[in-house]
Amino acid sequence: MAEALEGLRSSAAVLVARTRARVQEAVFALLQDEGLDAVTHLRVAQASGVGRATLYRHWPTRESLILDTFAGAKGPHEPQPTGDLRADLLAYLAMLQDGLCQERFGSVVTSLVGRADWDPVAAKLLGRMCEKGTRHLAELLEAGRDRGSLRPDLDVDEAVARIVGPVVFSRLVVRREIDRAWVVRLVDDVLRQFAPS
Fold it and tell me: pTM for the whole thing?
């Protein structure tokens, strides 16, 4: 009896994971192809093949549907810190660049930036994406500061903005290809700027 019950639980977990993946894929496709307004329970149900009742049961609001989808999204794999701040920053920026070069991710970020001033869902989603996407960088900078590689009064938020800002601007606004030499110059400039006195 216990084995049968465990088998049912296991089957249910697999079904839930499959359903979530289909919903997530549908939300991303709608965002990329048609923008934020296209993400409704009806459209996600049509695109995913998941019933609207199921969607409403798990995601009662459009906002929860969108935010939960992004919360569960797998981003680029964060590189393991090596203790060499320069190498760690270069690895982080390579990961960021790869993510921004993915058409799906880049177009969604661009869409959210354009709407964030007047759309609370877009603003909340963009904020969560930025926080999630820069947390690893902030940890690298804090560790570098603690090791003495960066000045002790380093404003981590400012340093994050000075590192991520040029990459995001170059890739998503002016749509410039970024090569490794450009990234190396950026990292070296930032390390010089925030070096201990």
Answer: 0.72
